[in-house]
Amino acid sequence: MLENKTILLGVCGCTPAGRAVDIATSLRSLGAEVKIIPTKNALNFVTPLMLQRASANPIQIDQFDSPVIWDRTYQSWTLDGDLLLIAPASADMLGKLANGIADDLLSTNVLSFEGPKLIAMNMSPMLYRNAAVQRNVQQLAVDGYYFIDNHDSTNPCRMPSVDDVVNEIVDYFHDRD
């Protein structure tokens, strides 16, 4: 289903960050190559080893660390990816992206990526209702980011299920192939 597709998976520091392992595993089982870019805060919820094992690829956390494979542009992943997914996406990351702030490896790669960008956000309802967060969500939608629906009208800011996220990616490629 996803053979010859490379999915870039950004992981932010939120409670469901561990679901990134399940998302990567599911995408790989469908034939995709998965490359994970976690934020430093994501590693408070999931370990680098778990992410590496799920993706079968090395991960890099800090854009100024020496990479496993040298890339002088530091953005080869953005050139190779077919789709970029951030799951879970924090309010902090939404704010950075909506305002063009590239101050870590994930935000730099997301802003550099020219392909489709999907977001599976996760935050508290109070944070989600904040006017600034709503402006950021609206701006990202205008900028062409696609938000994956969690099908929960009472709590639209909760991260969608792993199946919903994976199905959204499969549907995206099915509609374009």
TrEMBL record:
Organism, scientific name: Eubacterium oxidoreducens
One Pfam family here: Flavoprotein
Protein name: Flavoprotein
Molecular function as annotated in GO: FMN binding; phosphopantothenoylcysteine decarboxylase activity
Occurrences of domain Flavoprotein (ranges): 5-172
Tree of life domain: Bacteria
Gene3D superfamilies for this protein: Flavin prenyltransferase-like (3.40.50.1950)
GO cellular component assignments: phosphopantothenoylcysteine decarboxylase complex
InterPro entries in alphabetical order: Flavin_trans-like (IPR036551), Flavoprotein (IPR003382)
GO biological process, one term: coenzyme A biosynthetic process
